[in-house]
Amino acid sequence: MATETTGAADKAVQRAFAGKTTTENGSSSIHLPLEHVDVGGGALSATVAPPSEGDAGLDHDTLREMYEYVALARALDERMWQLNRAGKAAFIVSGQGHEGAQVGAAFALERGKDFLLPYYRDLAFSLAFGLTAENVMMAALARADDPTSGGRQMPGHYGSRKFNIISGSSPVSTQVPHATGTAYAAKVRGTGQVSITCFGEGGASKGDVHEACNFAGIHKLPVIFFCENNRYAISVPIERQMAIDNVADRAVGYGFPGVIVDGTDVLAVYQVVKDAADRARRGEGPTLVEAKLYRFQPHTSDDDDRAYRDPEEVKAWRDHDPLLRFAQRLLDVGAVDEDSLAGIKDKVRSDVDAATDVAEAAPLPDSATFDHHVYAAQ
Amino acid sequence: MVETLERTTDAKPMNGVADGGDSTNMTFIEAINTTLRDEMRADERVVILGEDVGPRGGVFRVTAGLIEEFGEDRVIDTPLAESGIIGTAIGMAINGLRPIAEIQFMDFIHSALDQILNEAARLRYRSNNDFSCPMVIRVPFGGGVHGALYHSQSIEAMFVHTPGIKVVAPATPADARGLLHSAIHDGDPVLFLEHKKMYRSIKGEVPAGDYEAPLGKARIVQEGADVTVVTYGMMVHESQRAIGEVAKETGASIELIDLRSLKPLDTETILNSVKKTGKAVVVTEANGLCSVASEVAATIGEQAFAWLDGPVTRVAAPDVPAMPFSPPLEHAFMIDAEKIGVALRKLLDF
């Protein structure tokens, strides 16, 4: 039982899963194989998704593709940190630790048809929806050919009309009512599209989330509210953000299901979001999905997380890194062997190198264009 | 409250833009209502959302009869949540609809400012033209109706201040039709301001069919040689009353410009007029500090300085919350023909 374990970091990991945390071995300090954890046992009303098993019905090509996106997002994120520390990238907002949940969710949707309304940690989600490493690096280095904003927005503000990724802003959760709107339009136009919008548990405190969920619940809209709960709103721990354990428990107040899922279990997230998307397409309305996970890096390149969290806690969660867990799963089901896994890692590394080279050589925007596109061209 | 608003007016009707026989005499509110209906008939992408816009037809009855004709998918009674109304409308616009969102009173719009100013207005720019947000936000505004602090406000300046959104404030039924048509067909978000005191007190000829008043073009209500009055909304009518009295009393020839569009601002019409008359009174019922009147005055000062024969004069509300309820307090706050007349006489004498 949770009480048998010791160490603040260990307890913090357990708290993320709302009590009733069990471990295989209750005596040592940090060892929480999350696939064995009773995720969200303290839920008031939300349901708790079971851990994934095996290949979750996905073929091996798909599993390898999913892994490649998780790995690519991680490698790009790491490279952007390096560029930031080298003085080449002014800013980075990090999604390390979130990639597994994002890729699991993305693959449960119809990419090219459905809408993604991301927030600034959704690098892996945006890659899976179509942005390339080069696109992302162009944005990181504020180049003219940054397809997400032409070098106007800070990095991390992903958007693309081509890939149905809706451009967002920095104030948190403002994109959530937009998803209700795209879903409303999809419903009355009969397009069959599902909208998914992402936000942190910090962003879940915003009134816009309530207003969007309420409206979507009334009209049974095809929208998935996807909370990536990493336990910190920059520096403020979850205990200071909310009086309950699970964001997903709030769904009951809107008349649709809330589901808690282990956000480091890629295929568990895939299954939950698949169910939510199927439900949405059947006309049964929204779902609030809460993926419990952890942010491995500081909030941004301008943050220092040592001021607010114990490095031991970070280390404990790193033991449940979705990248490592997913690699192990692929080995377990025979989708990869050590050689092919190394091959994927090599490919990802060379993709990131190539993207970096192209972006570094690419021109900055022409300053004469700074006032373009404030309004439609006359 | 609404009954009070309907009865409360002492403004005189003014003529709209007649185009011969093919027009109808109607009130300001009828012009908006029929234009909404015609636009919804012409384009099924046009949807209306807001509080009480359905069977109630809006608290002012601007959307009366629309849900009966177009159904509840296109005329949506929303929860009482202004940020959600605008945020949802933005998503609708992104996914192919042409939403017209109603905020019940401008005094309630503050909780939607993030969605309007940070989201709708910036979407095109921040996405480098990848996305746009063609939507109309209809908002009753303005005072003099015993609406007190939260049913009287005119806070248009903060929208005019923000790049990416256009702001219009028609003063006649014809312009209400023409500007609403233009706003619905525009590619960017447009804030459409309806002075609530004008809904039933102002009548005029309204052209039938696709009548378009361009965004960004002012209207010269009457020509004059001695002084220019620049204003918009209900203050066009108050200024007309003041001009009538002052002209009768002094024999002065006074030009009146109805801005119609607060952004884009028709600086050309303003400057041409002031270069002719040499004097300008700029009138707004909003708080004067950093107001539309301030902007017009600054523009005149910068670009017509050599033509000026007197100080550019603003007539605007004081730095006091709009506006107290009790009649003597409301009267003290509110700009009217009498206050405009005082400024006009003073400037004419300069």
Can you describe this structure?
The complex is a heterodimer of chains A (378) and B (350). Chain A is an alpha/beta fold. Chain A has one domain: Rossmann fold. In chain A, 38% of the residues lie in helices and 9% in strands. Chain A has eleven helices and eight strands. Chain A has helices at 8-15, 60-85, 99-107, 123-129, 133-140, 175-189, 207-218, 266-281, 311-318, 322-333, 338-361, and strands at 47-48, 115-117, 195-200, 223-229, 232-233, 236-237, 258-262, 287-292. Chain A has a six-stranded parallel beta sheet, with helices on both faces. A two-stranded antiparallel ribbon of chain A has the order 5-6. The model of chain A is unreliable at 1-9 and 14-37 (pLDDT under 50). Chain B is an alpha/beta fold and 350 residues long. Chain B folds into two domains: 2-207, 3-Layer(aba) Sandwich (Rossmann fold), CATH 3.40.50; 219-349, Rossmann fold (3-Layer(aba) Sandwich), CATH 3.40.50.920. Helices cover 37% and strands 19% of the residues of chain B. Chain B contains 13 helices and 14 strands. Chain B has helices spanning 2-7, 28-42, 66-70, 82-94, 113-120, 123-126, 157-160, 173-185, 234-250, 267-277, 292-303, 327-333, 337-349; strands spanning 23-27, 46-50, 75-77, 98-102, 136-141, 166-168, 190-195, 203-207, 219-222, 227-231, 254-258, 261-263, 280-287, 313-317. In chain B, strands 3-2-4-5-7-6-12 form a seven-stranded mixed beta sheet, with helices on both faces. A five-stranded mixed beta sheet of chain B has the order 9-11-10-13-14, with helices on both faces. A two-stranded antiparallel ribbon of chain B has the order 1-8. In chain B, helix 9 packs across helix 13. The radius of gyration of chain B is 20 Å and the shape is globular. The model of chain B is unreliable at 1-20 (pLDDT under 50). The interface between A and B is large, with 47 and 43 residues.
